[in-house]
Structures are given as structure tokens and as C-alpha cells.
Amino acid sequence: MRCAAGVIAAAVFSWPALAEESPIGFVSGPLQGAAAENVKHKEESLAHSAFGAVTSDTAVFKSGPMLAWVDWSRLGGHYRWQDNDVGSLSNEVKDIFDATGFTILESDGITVNGYAARYRKISLIGVDRRCGVFALMRRNHMVQGFACAPAARAFTVQAVMEGISIDGVIGP
């Protein structure tokens, strides 16, 4: 996530970019139809293993004043995700927006489109932003990310998660 912070910060403060091809998209919710920007695909070999690689796709989405970043990672072989790190993702969002801190407004674990999900809704301190950070996990797939908007623009983290569509993997 740390290496993505610069890409996300550039997207926050840049002119609109051209849409790029991505397996990740939004088919409903507050980001429905938002074009994918800063699309990345990478594969890394698993350390000390003959079981394959970690494959990930990331993209940034903007809809009006709302911004989202989504990472879809897959583990090779017989590996499974054990945990998500919604706490450190909250800190990354704080750093991206140069906030002095954040307040957790809501936090829960639910099921979204067949995935076990953890999320937080946070209010950034010193910046007019409310953000939802989330991680959805199922076997060797993990979808994590955040969506942020000005504090006056209401949205639910659940609607953002439910709107994510990944080609042939997850969708409403």
C-alpha cells in the first residue's frame, strides 16, 4: 500500500485522466460508472515457495468529489489470506490526505457478495474528508481499498463495497 500512496495522491490532486482498461469497476453505488485510472497489474513470486505468485490489480476511481482506490490481490498455490489490515489502511488514508489524525465513526464485519468483509468509516482530522476503508476476503482473493468524499457528502461504505465488480469474480 505504501508504494500506492504516491499514485493515489497524484490522482487526488491531478486533472482528470483518460479511462484505462481494468478488471475492476463499479456497477452500482456512489461510484457507479466511474472510469478506472492509474491502473496497475503486477505479479510477485511467493518467497520460499514453488506454489506460484501473488497477483494484484489496482485502480483509482473518481466520481465528482469522491475518490476511491481498489486493490484486488490473489495468492497462488494453496495459500489463503489469514487477515486483513484495515487499521493500517486507515493510517495510509490519513497520510495520503495529510490529515493530522482520524476518528473512527463506524466499524463492522459483514458479508458482501459472498466475501467476508471488514470496514471502517473514518473522519479525517484537519481535512474536510470522510472515508471508508475496507477489505473483502474469500479463500485466496482479497479486495481492499478506500473511498473518500467531502464530509458533507453522505455515502455508506457498504454501498461502495457492494458496487465493486471484478470480471468473473465478484459483483452485485
In brief:
By secondary structure, the protein is α+β, with helices and mostly antiparallel strands. The chain has helices spanning 2-12, 86-96, 157-163, and strands at residues 24-26, 36-45, 53-63, 66-75, 101-112, 115-125, 130-138, 141-149, 164-166.
Please, could you describe this protein's structure?
By secondary structure, the chain is an alpha+beta fold. It has 3 helices and 9 strands. It has helices spanning 2-12, 86-96, 157-163, and strands at 24-26, 36-45, 53-63, 66-75, 101-112, 115-125, 130-138, 141-149, 164-166. The chain has a 7-stranded antiparallel beta sheet with strand order 2-3-4-8-7-6-5, sandwiched between helices. It has a two-stranded antiparallel ribbon with strand order 1-9. A hairpin with a 7-residue loop joins strand 2 and strand 3 (53-63). Helix 1 crosses helix 2. The longest helix is centred in the first third of the chain and has 11 residues, at 2-12. The model has no long low-confidence stretch (mean pLDDT 86).
Placed side by side, the strands forming the largest sheet appear as: 2-3-4-8-7-6-5
What share of the residues does DSSP label as strand, in percent? Answer: over 45%
What's the total number of strands?
A: 9
Mean pLDDT: 86
Proportion in helices: 10-25%
Overall 3D form: globular
Nearest-angstrom radius of gyration? 15 Å
- Beginning-to-end CA distance, first to last residue: 26 Å
